[in-house]
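Q: What does the assembly look like in three dimensions?
Context provided by user:
Components: two
Sequences:
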Amino acid sequence: DSGVTQTPKHLITATGQRVTLRCSPRSGDLSVYWYQQSLDQGLQFLIQYYNGEERAKGNILERFSAQQFPDLHSELNLSSLELGDSALYFCASSGLGQGTNTQYFGPGTRLTVL
Amino acid sequence: QKEVEQDPGPLSVPEGAIVSLNCTYSNSAFQYFMWYRQYSRKGPELLMYTYSSGNKEDGRFTAQVDKSSKYISLFIRDSQPSDSATYLCAMGGGATNKLIFGTGTLLAVQP
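A: Here is the predicted structure of the complete assembly.
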């Protein structure tokens, strides 16, 4: 158990809908990262938050947004969903500064868009 | 060209074999290197962490980093069926702690 929790485990929805994925980092970790993993794309970095502020952006679509709250949990919002958004979404967390850049992953949320 | 290249496999070996998994990369700024193990439909689990060049050993696992060749390896000795998983290399550097992942190598250890 990495200490990172994600809810829900599974999500099935229809095209055009909006969903919210939730992540709680390990105790004490200030950074949260979101990744998308699909069969043909591997693990793709979406976005990083550090202590409530956006730190880095990857291949995140404009239809997707994220935020990190004062209690450090994070939410990833996916809107106007398309079939191609079906994937595993992982959250990871890490500690502060250099030398603590190891990322610990949660169990993921499996999103299926029908 | 991708920043990180990893042979996707699949790689099938008999139990007890020595397994070698490799990644190459193009960004000379990468400073830290990791190997993650991912069982089917589970979250990646950190196996090994190495900073800069050199070797690191942990039980049956050895990680090697050759920064001059931009090449990293993970060796698994006395492989077990429980080692069957996808192995992802990851590397990064800089203030954001952003990691770049390889596409993963699927390993199957046959009993």
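Follow-up: The CA atoms of residues 6 and 23 of chain A lie 5 Å apart.
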